[in-house]
Amino acid sequence: MNESTVKNTGRQTNVSENQLLTRAQVAKRWNCCAHTVCRDKRLKPVWFNQRRLRYRLGDIEAIERMGLSAGECSQVTTKVGGAR
Fold first, then answer.
1. Do 44 and 8 touch, CB atoms closer than 8 A?
2. Distance CA 15, CA 11 (A)
3. Judging by beta carbons within 10 Å of its beta carbon (0-12, 13-18, 19+), is residue 47 exposed, middle or buried?
4. pLDDT digits (tens, 9 = 90+) for 20-40
5. CA-CA distance, 32 to 10, in Å (whole number)?
6. What domain count does the chain have?
7. For residue 52, what is the DSSP state?
8. Residue range(s) defining the domain that contains residue 12
9. Strands (E), 1-84
10. Would the pTM count as exceeding 0.85?
């Protein structure tokens, strides 16, 4: 198992690479645009450096359990962000 030490909100954490998803992977999973994932304030990214980030699978699954993913992803952003 490949593990990396990453920095998230000021503390060091060991995170398994296969438990992290890219923005594009989350967008594909939720059937929405990568920019929509970026704007979603419920997701807290794990930063590897200034440009490389990932999202924890556990955080994504928790949002999905609340029923706010997939086809609803764009609807939530529209309601929060205003008219498109």
1. yes
2. 12
3. middle
4. 999 999 999 999 999 999 999
5. 30
6. 1
7. -
8. 3-81
9. 3-8, 11-16, 20-21, 46-47, 53-56
10. no
